[in-house]
Amino acid sequence: MHDGTTGTTGSMFREFLRSPGQIGAVAPSSRRLAAEVSLPIPESGDPVVVELGPGTGAFTTLIQELLGGRGHHLAVEINPRLAASLATRHPRVTVLHAEASTLPRLLASYGLGAADVVISGLPWAVLPLPVQRATLASVHHALSPQGAFTTFGYVHATRLSPARRFRRMLGASFEEVVAGRTVWANLPPAFVYHARRPRPHPANLLTPA
After folding, report:
1. Burial 95-130, CB ≥16 within 10 A → b, else e
2. Res 6: pLDDT
3. How many whole angstroms separate alpha carbon 67 and alpha carbon 85?
4. How far is residue 56's CA from residue 9's CA, in Å, rounded to a whole number?
5. Alpha-carbon gap, residue 178 to 75, rounded angstroms
6. Which residue blocks in the chain are alpha helix, DSSP H?
7. For 29, phi and psi rounded to 5 degrees?
8. DSSP class per residue in 184-201
9. Whole-number pLDDT of residue 54
10. Which of 17, 40, 50, 180 can bridge 115 by disulfide, Cβ–Cβ 3.0-4.6 Å?
């Protein structure tokens, strides 16, 4: 026998071997990291929560627990195998096999004007510059004026050029960007970026798809 964690770890590792540029990790994120990225989800109301790059669903499970049947939860996954598995395991989540850079169009197709919270599991540090720009522009365009965006980075990658560039892009896109404390209970250790209040005219971003 094996538990769900073992199964999702195996799935993540297989997909990493197939597409390291899309997956960016060899193991699912920890429950502790999921709790940190999910902090902006409101405790009441019917929020629109978007999850980018859910992978095997490490964040999805906790987001569903926090929502408790409220609001709308869209999960956008580019990997078809992971998307299909996630849709099977989380029937209450609208799982979309699509690129994150098309987020505004996806929201519009479901009659949702803007997202209250966008939670990202995308491997920003390994994404090419055009993809970084287009995806972050889509997040910025899709968020409500008071919306929140959370994503994470791995501690060991903070000095890499793509990671530093992404941090500068966050500052150009949001009025408030705060890096949380290191989550050591994750493989590898990670930290969370909390970004709020999208700037009216962000610099150095591409027009979203």
Report:
1. bbbbbbbbbbebbeeeebebbbbbbbbbbbbbbeee
2. 41
3. 21
4. 8
5. 24
6. 4-18, 20-23, 31-37, 58-67, 80-89, 103-109, 129-142, 161-173
7. -70, 155
8. -SSSS-EEEEEEEEE-SS
9. 96
10. 50
Q: What is the pTM of this model?
A: 0.85
For the chain, the residue count is 209
Would you state the pLDDT for residue 205?
A: 61
Provide the edge-to-edge strand list for the sheet that holds 115-120. Answer: 94-97, 72-77, 48-52, 115-120, 143-154, 190-198, 174-179
Residue type, 174: F
Closest CA to 118 of 99, 89, 138, 93: 138
Q: What share of the chain is helix, strand, coil (3-state, %, to 5)?
A: 45, 25, 35
> What's the start-to-end Cα distance of the chain, in Å?
44
Q: What is the predicted pLDDT for the residue at 140?
A: 94
Low-confidence ranges of the chain (pLDDT < 50): 1-26, 206-207, 209
Which residue type is seen at 104? Answer: P
Q: Which two tokens stand for residue 44?
A: 């009441």
Structure-token match 């960016």, residue found: 24
Alpha carbon 82 to its chain centroid, in Å, reads 14
- DSSP H helix total and E strand total for the chain: 8, 7
As a whole number of angstroms, the distance between CA 101 and CA 124 comes to 13
Bridge-based pairing state of the strands 190-198 and 48-52: unpaired
Sole residue written with tokens 């930290």: 191
